[in-house]
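Quarterly update from the structural biology core.
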Amino acid sequence: MAGGEQRSLVAVGAAVTAAMWYARFAARRVRPGLPRLAAFLPVCAILPVLPFAFRAIHTRGISGFFLAWLAEFKLLLLACGQGPLDPSLPLPAFIAIAAFPVRRRDPKNAPGSGLGLLTSAVYVALLAAIVSLYQHKERMNPYVLLVLYSVHVYLALELVLASAAAAVRAVMGMDLEPQFDRPYLSANLRDFWGRRWNLSVPAVLRPCVSRPVRARVGAASAGVLAAFLVSGLMHELMFYYITLQPPTGEATAFFTLHGMCTVAEGWWAKHKGWPRPPGAVATTLTLAFVLATGFWLFFPPITRPGADKVVIAECEAMVAFVRDAGSWLAASVRSP
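Predicted structure, tokenized:
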């Protein structure tokens, strides 16, 4: 199976390279607007199909997020003459920014700090510990298991996105924005979703959805609700890549609920004299709300068809491979 995934990775990489070369070529010759969007249609049609070349849930889900969500939205922005893609970029940089969840750092912002080596090692160790605990999952309280799933999702996303950014940074020498900013310190939902969690998503949702809707309707709350709705719909697609099951609508309900609560938070925050919980309490309430609604609406579309069991099996195989490789390397070093 590993050999098949490697062949698929080479084929998908070649297809993405060719597609982005064409997109850059078209963008340099076709003016922004409907003509450029029409020129991009072949690329926009093929990107969502490419993740199905993979059999493993991890590679299918990660490539789906990179290609069918982020890359598509970046191409839509480029069709409108907006960043982060620019046809004047060198081809390798254009492909890297299009195909990976990276953003060049705005010079006005503080220098980006990726996940450090020590922190990465701690996260890897924690993730490996969580995977080892799954062998006892049948005897666990269901809510304890869901908490482990939640931490697993965070650690895995942080490591995957940081690894992608580190690779682009090393090869291209780009100064990049961080992908996460300690979401476990979020004081409210606006802080969690807008400034701390998986920042590559709001980076494309704001210009693609939130700002245009706000400009059309004339209300900031409409833009926020629209962005959360689109995020929910895109998560339905991500879940389809993971489970290969029809959408259930639960992910859309999850993000719609969070959008409404975020708007309500903003409305409350405008009233300066109204009570606010202390910082530690606010963070605890925020994380508890995210977890509770996640248990209710986010995880069931994954656990119901048993995709979580497949994810665990893939993780266990990965941990075993790394352990065996480490043992072999240690034995090789000790032998004369």
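The longest helix spans residues 142-172.
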